[in-house]
C-alpha cells in the first residue's frame, strides 16, 4: 500500500535477517515470544510497520515497512541494539546479536506506476 509524507509517496519494505552471537539455537520458547513482543514495541516506537516477524531457533527474519527518511542500516541498528538492551534488562537470560546482518528491499512499483506518477505531476513547479 502506497503511503505518503508531506512531500513523498513511498512503498518501502525491507527483509532483514540477523543471527545471535555464536549462532546458538537459543531463540525458542519464551525467548522467541519475548523477542517478538520487543520487536513489535520497537517498530511502534520508531514509526515502522512490522509486517512479518519470524524468530527461528538460530536466526531472525523481519519484514519491515519504513518511511524513506530511515536508512536500512539505521533500522537494523535500532532493531538489534534496542532489542538486546530491552531483553537483557527485563530477563535473566541474555541475548547478543552478531554485528552482521542481511537486508534486502522489496517493493511493487512497476514501470507503469512510475510513468503514471510522472504524467500526473508534469508541470508541477513545487
Automatic annotation (TrEMBL):
It holds the Pfam family Y1_Tnp. Residues 9-121 form the Transposase IS200-like domain. SMART domains: Y1_Tnp. SUPFAM superfamilies: Transposase IS200-like. GO terms for biological process: DNA transposition. One of its GO terms (molecular function) is transposase activity. InterPro entries: Transposase_17, Transposase_17_sf. NCBIfam families: transpos_IS200. This is Transposase IS200-family protein. It comes from Halorubrum distributum JCM 9100. The lineage of its organism: Archaea, Methanobacteriati, Methanobacteriota, Stenosarchaea group, Halobacteria.
Amino acid at each position: 500500500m502506497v503511503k505518503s509524507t508531506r512531500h513523498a509517496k513511498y512503498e518501502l519494505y525491507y527483509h532483514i535477517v540477523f543471527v545471535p552471537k555464536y549462532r546458538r539455537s537459543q531463540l525458542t520458547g519464551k525467548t522467541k515470544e519475548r523477542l517478538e513482543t520487543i520487536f513489535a514495541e520497537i517498530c511502534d516506537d520508531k514509526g515502522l510497520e512490522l509486517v512479518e516477524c519470524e524468530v527461528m531457533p538460530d536466526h531472525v527474519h523481519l519484514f519491515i515497512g519504513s518511511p524513506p527518511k530511515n536508512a536500512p542500516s539505521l533500522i537494523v541498528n535500532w532493531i538489534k541494539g534496542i532489542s538486546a538492551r530491552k531483553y537483557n534488562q527485563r530477563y535473566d537470560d541474555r541475548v547478543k546479536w552478531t554485528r552482521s546482518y542481511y537486508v534486502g528491499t522489496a517493493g511493487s512499483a512497476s514501470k507503469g506506476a512510475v510513468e503514471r506518477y510522472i504524467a500526473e505531476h508534469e508541470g508541477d513547479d513545487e
